[in-house]
Amino acid sequence: MTDVGTTARKPLTPTQRLKLFERFSGVCQLCSRKIEAGEPWVDEHLRALSLGGGNEEANRAPVHKACADAKTYGPEGDLAKAAKAKRQKMAHLGIRSASKPIQGGQSLPGANPARRATKPLEKALPPRRGLFRSENA
Length: 137
Ligand SMILES: [Zn+2]
Hints:
alpha+beta, DNA Binding (I), subunit A, 2 strands, binds zinc ion, endonuclease activity, nuclease, endonuclease, hydrolase, HNH endonuclease
């Protein structure tokens, strides 16, 4: 198995790009729609490099730029999968991920709920002095 996240991206030459485009008859391999003249497209790694895919021709296909972005950055996209693969690899090797800071509004399990501004105070604060001009007069 190729090690996860170790293969460097290798750009195609213009000739290789044309060959790739023609090999797939200019059909986007993600949405199966034809890539029209002038539409931005990229040569996509069908299996992302970050998920162990390689630069070989068999792993590359023309796709719309927009489709590639969705594949890479979407909620089920390659970046999310790569992050999961990395977590799994670390867990497998017994490496703990850095503890996450507690998010605002969350509290530790078993802790008293955080006091909120909307929650009335249990005991009234002592009156404050000197805040208003009339009190100083
Ligand atoms: Zn597409």
